[in-house]
Amino acid sequence: MAPHGPYQTGLYSRKDDIYDESRLTLMSDLREALHHNQTELYYQPKISLATGKVVGVEALIRWHHPDRGWVPPIEFVPMAEKTGVIKHLTRWVVDQALNDLKELHALDPALTVSVNISARDLSSPELVGLFETRTKRNQLNPEQVIIELTETAAMDDPHRGLSALNELTAIGLKLSIDDFGAGYSSLSYLKKLPASEIKLDRALLQDIESSEGARMIVETAIRMGQGLGYQVVAEGVETEKSARLLNQLGAEMLQGYWICSPKPLHELQAWLEVERKA
Ligand code: C2E
Ligand code: CA
Ligand code: CA
Ligand code: CA
């Protein structure tokens, strides 16, 4: 009578097993791809509502697998975290993103780049040195490099996490709390993080066009974030109506398909050129 599916035997679930052969293959393929530059960074602009101008871009990894086609980051990033491959992924992303920022500065020297890192990166003794050397190599102002970390990742190992984040901000980098409002983080802990920005999770913004209650929640989150001294970014903005509402509710910055979808560097450069002339 036990309703076990074909891949389940008691508590052991094949589906969740990170040592599943196909997943291990995927991870060794990912390491190869990173090594041979078969991964790519796409960039999505973030705009200031006060000026309507692009203030920075977020780097988002893309992987086109030779047999499987596009593999979405939500499929391989968590797996890379579990297996430790994230260390290689993050190194590749930081390398590429900081080189690319140097190029983007030809168009606008004030642009920032945001890089996503994971909980596991925070326990790597190489992380601070990685950002430090790549920033110097490209002669970038570290204040133009923003590290995005989800609140749950920051909470993973609060003590170690906090000291790593303090080291990163001590060398001038900025910290952004990603997916804000999506988890159950303790506000008293969040307050201790050396962050300068929060990104409201897309889920929070979902119903703001139709629900007064949803708008109240977003407005409260924005006020609270600003009260704690953070700049507030609303992400995943898909419509003009949402953008207008978020402006009224007090958000400082917006990101989302309504403004621009993530694009390869050269397409983003073309988009920025058009924007600049507009
Ligand atoms: P995230 O950091 O919260 O990134 C935002 C996600 O929302 C991205 O998905 C982006 O393409 C998508 N997005 C942007 N605008 C809109 C919109 O208007 N509507 C909707 N529905 N979605 C929008 P993506 O690129 O698939 O990345 C998913 C997640 O994978 C990211 O969430 C991040 O947690 C992770 N990720 C992506 N790139 C990296 C990376 O280089 N390193 C690490 N550690 N994680 C990454
Ligand atoms: Ca992010
Ligand atoms: Ca996010
Ligand atoms: Ca996310």
From TrEMBL:
Say which domain of life the source belongs to.
Bacteria
Residues in domain EAL? 23-276
Indicate what this protein is called per its UniProt record. EAL domain-containing protein
Query: What organism is recorded for this protein?
Result: Marinobacter adhaerens
